[in-house]
Fold this protein.
Amino acid sequence: MSIENTLEDIIDRLRQGRFPNEQAISQGIVLRLLQELGWNTWDTNLVWPEYQTGEGRSDFALCHPPSKPAIFIEVKHPGKAAKTDPSFLERCSRHPDSQGRKRRYIARTAEDLYPDRPDLRDFCEPLPDGWLVATNLNNRIKMIIIRLATEVAGLSFGEDVIVEF
């Protein structure tokens, strides 16, 4: 089965209400997708369930190399999942922390991301609806962007969203 087919199946099951709680989402969505992406979900040195972080607990830690967490996954009940918000990126781009002294971190054009650095304009990633996010950033700036997106989404940084570099 291809990743596209897996995603279509998961979406169908979500619409049918087949994932009634976080455990069902963990097993039926997260572990399934991780396996599809090549993670050995049976090896708890690679996919570590219930990983204790410095600020709490993460439902999963993806470890690379083994036993060294690189990515944390937090699972939420389907009713608590974020809804699609077409104004989210626009609101993020207007947030006071969405720009540095000379450039924006979220914008519609690479020129707005790097106005005085044409050599860096390839360092961005597309987001939905024609938005771009700068990628030539240090970890401090990445954290600023994550915090502002968390705030715009109405979530609590450190509780709903936990990030460690």
